[in-house]
Write a structure and sequence with these properties.
With about 450 residues, the protein is α/β, with parallel strands linked by helices. The protein contains ten helices and 25 strands. The protein folds into two domains: about 190 residues, FAD/NAD(P)-binding domain (3-Layer(bba) Sandwich), CATH 3.50.50; about 140 residues, FAD/NAD(P)-binding domain. A six-stranded mixed beta sheet has the order 5-2-1-9-21-20, with helices on one face. It has a four-stranded parallel beta sheet with strand order 13-12-11-17. It has a three-stranded antiparallel beta sheet with strand order 6-7-8, with no helix packed on it. The C terminus is likely disordered.
C-alpha cells in the first residue's frame, strides 16, 4: 500500500548509516518518507580501504538504497542533490537533474520533519589543490581511483625497469595516521611483500616503501596511548615507516614536503582530516571550525525542533559534555534516535530526552591478523583484536549476500595471500603516478 499524502512528511537527506537507519525505523509507520541521496547506493565506508587495496570489489561493500528499503511501502527514494535548506519555510532546495537537464524536476520539496545526514568530505586545510594529487577515501569512486594509482605505480615501475635495467624507488606516502591511514598503510605493505612479490620480473615489489606521516606525536591519536604505541609497533613489524611530528607543507606530483625536507612519492594518499558537508552552512545556525552544525541536546537546530542534524554533519555532545565521535556507530544511533523522536512527537507519547551516545568501543585494523580494539577498560591488540574487528564489520554489512561474499573473499585472501580485485580501471586521462619518484 502506498503512503497517503495526508500523512506527516519526513525528508531524509543522505543514504549513509544515519539516514538509512532512520528510514528503517520509520518504515511502514504512519508517516510519508522521502530519502534523497546523490548516489543510488549505500556504501559501507569502514571497508572502503579494502576496495582501495584490491581486497574487495565495490559491489561487495555497497547495496542499492532502493533494494535495502524496498519492503517499506511508505518510503520514496529520490536520486539527486540537495543544495540548501530554508528552515523558515520548511523546504529543501533540490538540485535539478544534472544528467537530463529536465526542467520538470522539483526545485523545492516541503517537509514536516527533516533529518540531515549528508556526512563529511576531505579537509585539505586550505589547500584544495592537493585533492587532485593526494586523493582521500570517502566514496567508491575514491577507492577505485586509489586502487588505480597503487597498481599503476607498480606497472610503471616494471616498465621503466624493463627499459632502463634498474628499479626506481617506489614510495607510497600516506598523510594522516588515523584509522584510515593506518589501515591503508598496513594493507599496502602486505600487498607489496606478500601479494605482488612473485608477479613481476623486472622489479621487486617488496622493496616499495610505505611511509605513514602524522603531524601529531602518535598514530591513532584518539585511541588510548597504550593502543597507539601497540599500533605503531605492529605497523613497523609489517614494514611500514612511521613519521610522527611531521607536518606536510606541500604536495607535488612526485614528492611531498615535510617541513623543508623533500620526500619522493610515487603515490600520495590523504587521510588527515574531514570537512562537514556544505549543506550545514545553509541552515543559518552556528557551525564549528570543521563546518559541523552545533546541535541541541535532541540533535535539532536552535529554534527548529523539526530539523534534525546527525552523523558527521553534527557537532553533538553527550549530557556529560563529551563530544560524540564521528564514527558509524554514532551515526546509526543518531539516526534511530531522530526517527523514534519523530514518532514519539506524532503520538504525543513522551517529552524529548537528550541524545546519549552509547560507546561500544573503537577498532582499527593494521594488517593481516593485526589490529587494536578499545572497549573502555578492555584493550586488545593483535590477532584477537583483528578477529573482533572482522566479525563486527561483517555483522554490520547491509544484506546477507554481502556478508557471505566478504567472509568468503577474506578467507581466500587469508589462506592464499591473494587479492582478487586487482583491476586498473578509470579514465585514462586521469592523473597517474609519476614514472620516476626521485632518489
Amino acid at each position: 500500500m502506498e503512503a497517503r499524502n495526508d500523512l506527516p512528511h519526513v525528508v531524509i537527506v543522505g543514504g549513509g548509516f544515519g539516514g538509512l537507519y532512520a528510514a528503517r525505523v520509520l518504515g511502514n509507520k504512519p508517516v510519508r518518507v522521502t530519502l534523497i541521496d546523490k548516489k543510488n547506493h549505500h556504501t559501507f565506508q569502514p571497508l572502503l580501504y579494502q576496495v582501495a587495496t584490491a581486497g574487495l570489489s565495490p559491489g561487495e561493500i555497497a547495496a542499492p538504497i532502493r533494494g535495502v528499503l524496498s519492503r517499506y511501502r511508505n518510503i520514496e527514494v529520490l536520486l539527486g542533490e540537495v543544495t540548501a535548506v530554508d528552515p523558515s519555510r520548511n523546504v529543501i532546495q533540490f538540485a535539478r537533474n544534472e544528467l537530463t537537464g529536465d526542467p520538470g524536476d522539483p526545485g523545492e520539496i516541503a517537509f514536516d520533519y527533516l533529518i540531515l545526514a549528508t556526512g563529511a568530505s576531505h579537509n585539505y586545510f586550505g589547500h584544495p589543490e592537493w585533492a587532485r594529487l593526494a586523493p582521500g577515501l570517502k566514496t567508491i569512486e575514491d577507492a577505485t581511483e586509489i586502487r588505480r594509482r597503487i597498481l599503476l605505480a607498480f606497472e610503471l615501475a616494471e616498465r621503466r625497469a624493463r627499459v632502463l635495467g634498474k628499479q626506481d624507488p617506489i614510495n607510497f606516502v600516506i598523510v594522516g595516521a588515523g584509522p584510515t591511514g593506518v589501515e591503508l598503510a598496513g594493507t599496502l605493505t602486505e600487498i607489496a611483500r606478500r601479494v605482488l612479490n612473485q608477479e613481476f620480473h623486472s622489479i621487486d615489489p617488496a622493496r616499495a616503501r610505505v611511509i605513514l606521516v602524522e603531524a601529531g606525536p602518535r598514530v591513532l591519536p584518539t585511541y588510548p596511548e597504550e593502543l597507539s604505541h601497540s599500533a605503531e609497533e605492529q605497523l613497523k613489524h609489517l614494514g611500514v615507516e612511521v613519521m610522527n611530528n611531521a607536518r606536510v607543507t606541500q604536495i607535488e606530483p612526485d614528492h611531498v614536503m615535510i617541513g623543508d625536507a623533500r620526500l619522493p612519492a610515487a603515490v600520495t594518499l590523504w587521510s588527515a582530516g574531514v570537512q562537514a558537508s556544505p549543506l550545514g552552512k545553509t541552515l543559518g545556525v552556528p557551525i564549528d571550525r570543521a563546518g559541523r552544525v552545533i546541535v541541541e541536546p535532541d540533535l535539532t537546530i536552535p529554534g527548529h525542533p523539526n530539523i534534525f542534524v546527525i552523523g558527521d554533519l553534527a557537532d553533538a555532545k553527550n549530557p556529560d559534555g563529551k563530544p560524540v565521535p564521528g564514527v558509524s556507530p554514532a551515526a546509526i544511533q543518531m539516526g534511530r534516535y531522530a526517527a523514534h523522536t519523530i514518532l514519539d512527537d506524532l503520538t504525543a507519547k513522551k517529552s524529548r530526552k537528550p541524545f546519549v551516545y552509547f560507546d561500544k568501543g573503537s577498532l582499527a585494523t593494521i594488517g593481516r591478523a593485526a589490529a587494536v580494539a578499545d572497549f573502555g577498560k578492555i584493550h586488545l591488540s593483535g590477532y584477537i583484536a583483528w578477529l573482533a574487528w572482522l566479525f563486527i564489520h561483517i555483522f554490520f554489512l547491509i544484506g546477507f549476500k554481502n556478508r557471505l561474499i566478504v567472509i568468503t573473499e577474506w578467507a581466500w585472501a587469508y589462506f592464499t595471500f591473494q587479492r582478487g580485485a586487482r583491476l586498473i580501471t578509470g579514465n585514462s586521462d586521469a592523473v597517474a603516478p609519476p614514472e620516476h619518484s626521485g632518489t
